[in-house]
From TrEMBL:
Molecular function terms from GO: phosphorelay sensor kinase activity
Pfam families cross-referenced by the UniProt entry: HATPase_c, HisKA, PAS_9
Stored CDD domains: HATPase, HisKA, PAS
Residues of the PAS domain: 27-83
PROSITE patterns found in the cross-reference section: HIS_KIN, PAC, PAS
Protein name (database record): histidine kinase
InterPro entries attached to this UniProt entry: HATPase_C_sf (IPR036890), HATPase_dom (IPR003594), His_kinase_dom (IPR005467), HisK_dim/P_dom (IPR003661), HisK_dim/P_sf (IPR036097), PAC (IPR001610), PAS (IPR000014), PAS-assoc_C (IPR000700)
Keyword set includes Phosphoprotein: yes
Keywords of the record: Kinase, Phosphoprotein, Transferase, Two-component regulatory system
SMART domains xrefs: HATPase_c, HisKA, PAC
Sequence ranges assigned to domain Histidine kinase in this UniProt record: 169-372
Length: 380
């Protein structure tokens, strides 16, 4: 500022607080950094479906379609999407605009690359803020490459189909001959003057084959469906299972009044496998070709866990060595080589489907004890 004669008098100025602007700039830089480090592709489209901005996955200079960002800006999505996927996207956008409570949508699509290859993607979209007059301005989206996931899904589907074919073969080609053999055995017992010991050995072999077939079918067909839980009297179902397992001279003691929530059919299968395992791995072992025709005198106890959150099945047999307790639930594992190695794997699988935890430890009598924890009980 100067006087009329040109003499300097001072300076006039305006001070404006730009703290908010600086903070906003910092926020934008942070958002930009976040977007640039996302492993997925981020883009924006205008209301007409033209690309206005696109950020390739982190550390990539090209987009997932093989074009550079500069080549795609201004282009319509029809360059890399087919009509069906565009129609799906437009329907999702319309649904978002019609429902103010929805803030995003997702759908699967295929991107068409520069060389014509199609790659599966998951597209997550949201509506951009409207303009001052409330008009639609476009969308923002995140493209996630799901090629690996789709490949795994195809492999799993093929594996399941192979398992179904295998289960069908087991069910038909093994069960039918077994049924014939069991029928012939019954006829032999009725009409032949044979040594009963030999016939018992044949019957034992048939029973083992039946158990093996059922276990194989369980493993092959079980896709870990959600259990259908209901209140079940644990003592009652244990007694029922005992009647359906070849226990010989083994003894059962039930020390529980618990009512548990479980899928009845699967709990029955779990208990039968545990009871059968206790008998089969007792000191004397089950009757068989090398046995004396009798069962072990093992005592099996079913009771409540101390914390009240589950139950156990214990025996006074030889037990499980500490270094093998982690492995007993593995498919194919058998301590003596005579078992199928599937029974305890099925136990663990059924427990996991219910959200229970299955562990193997030592019983008070020095035998094996299998604990099922995290079990829902009624009235506890």
């Amino acid at each position: 500022m100067y006087k009329r004669q040109g003499q300097y008098r001072g300076v006039a100025g305006v001070v404006r607080d730009i703290t908010a602007r600086t903070e906003r700039k910092r926020e934008l830089e942070e958002y930009e950094t976040i977007v640039e480090t996302i492993p997925d592709e981020v883009y924006t489209l205008d209301a007409a479906g033209r690309v206005t901005k696109i950020v390739p996955p982190s550390n990539d200079e090209l987009t997932t379609t093989g074009y550079s960002p500069a080549e795609l800006v201004g282009e319509h999505v029809s360059l890399f999407m087919d009509e069906a996927d565009i129609a799906t996207g437009e329907a999702e956008i319309a649904a978002l605009l019609a429902d103010p409570d929805r803030d995003h949508a997702s759908f699967e699509m295929e991107t068409i690359t520069r060389d014509g290859t199609r790659r599966p993607h998951e597209n997550h979209i949201a509506i951009l803020p409207p303009d001052e007059d409330g008009r639609f301005q476009g969308t923002v989206g995140v493209l996630r490459d799901i090629t690996d996931r789709k490949e795994r899904e195809r492999e799993l589907k093929a594996q399941n189909e192979r398992l179904e074919r295998f289960a069908s073969i087991v069910s038909h080609d093994l069960r039918n001959p077994l049924n014939v053999a069991q029928g012939r055995l019954a006829e032999a017992r009725r009409t032949c003057d044979c040594d009963e010991t030999h016939l018992e050995e044949v019957a034992w072999a048939h029973d083992r084959m039946g158990v093996l077939i059922e276990n194989i079918l369980t493993i092959a067909r079980d896709r870990d469906p959600q259990p259908d839980p209901e209140p079940i009297d644990l003592a009652a179902i244990v007694d029922d299972c005992w009647d359906h397992v070849d226990t010989g001279t083994a003894a059962l003691r039930v020390d529980t009044d618990a009512v548990v929530r479980a899928d009845r059919a699967r709990l029955k299968q779990l208990l039968e496998n545990l009871l059968r395992n206790a008998v089969d791995h007792s000191d004397v072992g089950p009757a068989g070709p090398d046995g004396d025709g009798g069962r072990s005198g093992v005592t099996i106890t079913v009771g409540d866990l101390a914390g009240g959150d589950g139950f156990y099945v214990a025996d006074d047999g030889p037990g499980i060595p500490p270094d093998e307790r982690e492995r007993v639930f593995e498919s194919g594992y058998s301590s003596d080589g005579d078992g199928t190695g599937l029974g305890l794997a099925i136990v663990e699988r059924i427990a996991a489907a219910h959200g229970w935890t299955a562990t193997a430890t030592e019983s008070a009598a020095g035998g094996a004890r299998f604990e099922l924890a995290d079990v829902d009980s009624v009235g506890r």
